[in-house]
């Protein structure tokens, strides 16, 4: 199932304010210490959420580039998405047996604004964005971020685009995704439509 969509931005506060003007409220997430990033979250229903992620001005410049190509962004962009699994190691092994290697799992954690520590495991975040093939994530016993995220929005649709849709569908099937549309396009792209009380919000 879809765990979350990643909407990366060069200016987190400005993007959060712009989304609010469109009718999409978010709640503060937390800082990713050492990565130089911070996020804000919106519940999308069905156990999914939107992560708006950008540079954290309260952290020093990280030793490595920020994830999701944030350092090179000039405008907000939907860059990646994640699929939630119960047993990450088993899901990685299954995907590899089906011809797709999601990469080795790693541990991550952050402190929520109220001090609660969230910990999770995930396969590598994409080196090139936008990434139409999802990374995998498992939350274990940690409270899922969607439970504390701003409510009111719903994920209406997620569409993937790629020059080789057939190859992408094979990779999606390897991680258990068979119900997401993949359209032909000159370059990889992600597009989501979120339904809010004020109307639809398009993210691309």
TrEMBL record:
Domain VOC intervals: 1-134
Protein name: Glyoxalase-like protein
């Amino acid at each position: 199932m879809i765990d979350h969509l990643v909407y990366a931005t060069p200016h987190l506060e400005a993007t959060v304010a712009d989304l609010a003007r469109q009718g999409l409220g978010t709640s503060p997430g937390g800082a990713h210490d050492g990565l130089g990033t911070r996020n804000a979250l919106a519940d999308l229903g069905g156990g999914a959420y939107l992560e708006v992620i950008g540079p954290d001005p309260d952290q020093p410049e990280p030793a490595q580039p920020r994830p999701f190509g944030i350092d090179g962004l000039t405008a907000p962009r939907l860059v990646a998405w994640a699929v939630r699994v119960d047993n990450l190691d088993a899901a990685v092994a299954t995907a590899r047996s089906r011809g797709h290697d999601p990469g080795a799992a790693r541990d991550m954690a952050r402190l929520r604004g109220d001090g609660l520590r969230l910990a999770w495991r995930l396969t590598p975040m994409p080196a090139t964005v936008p990434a139409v093939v999802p990374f995998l994530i498992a939350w274990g016993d940690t409270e899922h971020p969607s439970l504390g995220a701003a409510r009111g929005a719903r994920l209406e649709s997620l569409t993937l685009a790629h020059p080789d849709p057939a190859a992408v569908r094979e990779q999606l099937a390897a991680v258990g995704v068979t119900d997401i549309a993949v359209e032909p396009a000159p370059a990889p792209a992600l597009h989501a439509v979120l339904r809010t009380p004020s109307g639809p919000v398009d993210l691309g």
